[in-house]
């Protein structure tokens, strides 16, 4: 019997749907911090990701025709390019950056919004994030948005019309993992749009935990690009996302303060 014939196969993963399009992989990866474009290509392919984030202010995707372009190794024909506003600290700059990205990518609508509060923490500036999100949605963008792990703010962003909310697990690049699973669970419980962990993942177990909590996906960059072997870590993250999602769909046993024998005791001879 294969997986598709299993009586429980109705609950198997059907993919990640964002703004009406379904993707096979629930792992989204960044394109920065690699040693070179070749390593970017190898790690991206090993991750199995369909969606690749690109920092428009830091990565060349055509702004400089005389420099190597990321699109040469991560072509839009194979991947969904997700332009983001990394490095923006106010709504005005963020909106302008994504308008530029739309021109460079021939009218591309799916974007990732992040408006940072300061250079030390890279924590989201939520008032400016809300302002930018409202402008971008009105301008026809499909906005995936980096935000604090605050259920109220996440609900406000969904109300504005964002197609996905992306609360941080911990500070960008920190590798600290999920510091507040309770807030994350509250956001997941209330949301009718996809919830993806964005920032803070350090290793495969962090990604698996996010998926076991019920997240729809995980976005990461530093955890892969900063690893000793980025290509191998990319493969590990792919497997962790898949394992965590399968565990979530399977339904874990409840935690309890009592032992439970693995073999049934009823009917045993005394």
Account of the 3D structure:
The protein is an alpha/beta fold and 270 residues long. The protein is 34% helix and 15% strand. The chain is built from 8 helices and 10 strands. It has helices spanning 37-47, 91-104, 126-138, 151-160, 181-190, 204-213, 222-225, 230-250; strands spanning 16-18, 21-23, 27-30, 51-55, 80-84, 110-113, 142-147, 164-167, 196-198, 217-220. Strand 7, helix 4 and strand 8 (164-167) form a beta-alpha-beta unit. It is globular, with a radius of gyration of 20 Å.
List the helices and strands and how they pair.
Layout: E1 16-18, E2 21-23, E3 27-30, H1 37-47, E4 51-55, E5 80-84, H2 91-104, E6 110-113, H3 126-138, E7 142-147, H4 151-160, E8 164-167, H5 181-190, E9 196-198, H6 204-213, E10 217-220, H7 222-225, H8 230-250
Parallel strand pairs: 3-4, 3-10, 4-5, 6-7, 7-8, 9-10
Antiparallel strand pairs: 1-2
Helix pairs in contact: 1-8, 2-3, 3-4, 4-5, 6-8
Characteristic key phrases:
270 residues; alpha/beta; five-stranded parallel sheet; three-stranded parallel sheet; 8 helices; 34% helix; disordered N terminus
């Amino acid at each position: 019997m294969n997986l598709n014939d299993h009586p429980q196969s109705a609950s198997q993963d059907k993919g990640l749907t964002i703004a009406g399009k379904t993707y096979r992989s629930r792992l989204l990866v960044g394109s920065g911090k690699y040693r070179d474009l070749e390593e970017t290509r190898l790690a991206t392919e090993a991750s199995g990701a369909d969606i690749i984030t690109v920092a428009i202010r830091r990565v060349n995707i055509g702004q400089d025709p005389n420099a190597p372009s990321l699109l040469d190794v991560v072509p839009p024909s194979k991947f969904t390019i997700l332009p983001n506003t990394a490095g923006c600290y106010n709504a005005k700059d963020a909106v302008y950056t994504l308008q530029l990205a739309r021109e460079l990518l021939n009218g591309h609508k799916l974007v990732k919004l992040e408006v940072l509060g300061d250079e030390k923490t890279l924590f989201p500036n939520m008032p400016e994030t809300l302002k930018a999100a409202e402008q971008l949605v009105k301008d026809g963008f499909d906005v995936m948005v980096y935000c604090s792990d605050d259920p109220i703010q996440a609900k406000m962003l969904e109300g504005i019309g964002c197609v996905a909310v992306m609360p941080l697990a911990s500070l960008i690049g920190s590798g600290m993992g999920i510091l507040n699973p309770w807030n994350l669970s509250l956001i997941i419980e209330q949301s009718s749009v996809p919830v993806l962990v964005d920032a803070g993942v350090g290793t495969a177990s962090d990604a698996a935990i996010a998926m076991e909590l019920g997240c729809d996906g995980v976005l990461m960059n530093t955890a892969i690009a900063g690893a000793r072997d980025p290509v191998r870590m990319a493969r590990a993250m792919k497997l962790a996302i898949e394992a965590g999602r399968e565990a979530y769909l399977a339904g874990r046993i409840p935690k309890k303060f009592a032992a439970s024998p693995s073999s049934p005791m009823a009917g045993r001879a005394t």
